Amino acid sequence: MSGRAGDEERLRRQIVDVMQQMLARGLNRGTSGNVSARCGEGVLVTPSGIVPERLTVESIVYLDAEGRGRDGGLKPSSEWRMHARILARRPDVNAIVHCHSRYATILACAGKSIPSLHYMVGVSGKPEIQLAPYATFGSAELADHVAETLAGGYACLMANHGLIAAAPSLARALFIAEEVEEQAAVYWGTLAIGGPTTLSGTQMDEIFRQFRNYGQKKEPSE
Ligand SMILES: [Zn+2]
Fold first, then answer.
1. In angstroms, what is the span from residue 6 Cα to ligand 1's centroid?
2. How far is the CA of 170 from the centre of ligand 1 (A)?
């Protein structure tokens, strides 16, 4: 298979793989969490209510630019609006990973954002990992809140819910989600021993400069 159909097939496989990797890496349990990728004018998104072990390439749902599925397609994730809204607003983003990983969710349920306590907080694209305001899961209001909080960055926490990462590629979105979870665990740990010392704005600026020059002209760890 080649061309556009081949691209869609490849993206479907990658989405299944990312969902299964999230499970293997402890970022998700059961049917929580969802993943999407830009596909032409539309979006490919995980189906509603299917555990990662049972996902197949065929089960991934295609939605067009108006959010309409194809005949015979499964019901999309309840968070499809959130994925579609971000992709519509962000031409620099092609893939989104959302999960309820433990430490990010602990902080999100405590109403906390993650301050600039470690240079890897910078993978979010901002000096701190912000917290999007609460709205009911699956709602258009939540889609708006999250798209707004993500503006100019690549990850945020979602109040009383979990985390979301957006990136140019699925591999990068998974990497960011895993790193946000790690920074959430580190912050949680520091809160138990008196709280973190944070990096200054100047120190974070220097970190962003280093990120731009890191490795093989790519972002860290990719
Ligand atoms: Zn969720």
1. 30
2. 18
Cα→Cα distances 117→88, 113, 191, 195, Å = 32, 11, 11, 10
Task: Spot the catalytic one: 79, 128, 178, 181.
Answer: 79
Nearest to 203 by CA among 141, 127, 142, 140: 127
- Between 127-136, 176-185, 213-222, the lowest mean confidence (pLDDT) is in 213-222
Residue 221 has pLDDT above 80, yes or no: no
Whether pTM exceeds 0.85: yes
- Among residues 40, 18, 20, 39, the alpha carbon closest in space to that of 29 is found at 20
- Indicate the SS3 state at residue 29: coil
Q: pLDDT, tens digit, for every residue of 80-115?
A: 999 999 999 999 999 999 999 999 999 999 999 999
Q: Is residue 222 among the annotated active site residues?
A: no
Tell me what the mean pLDDT of segment 37-61 comes to: 96
Alpha helix positions (H), the chain: 3-24, 80-89, 102-109, 140-150, 170-191, 201-213
Beta strands, E only, 40-183: 42-45, 61-63, 95-99, 131-132, 155-158, 162-167
**Torsion angle defined by CA atoms of residues 17, 222, 188 and 116, in that order, rounded to the nearest 10 degrees:** -140
Q: Which amino acid is at 59?
A: S
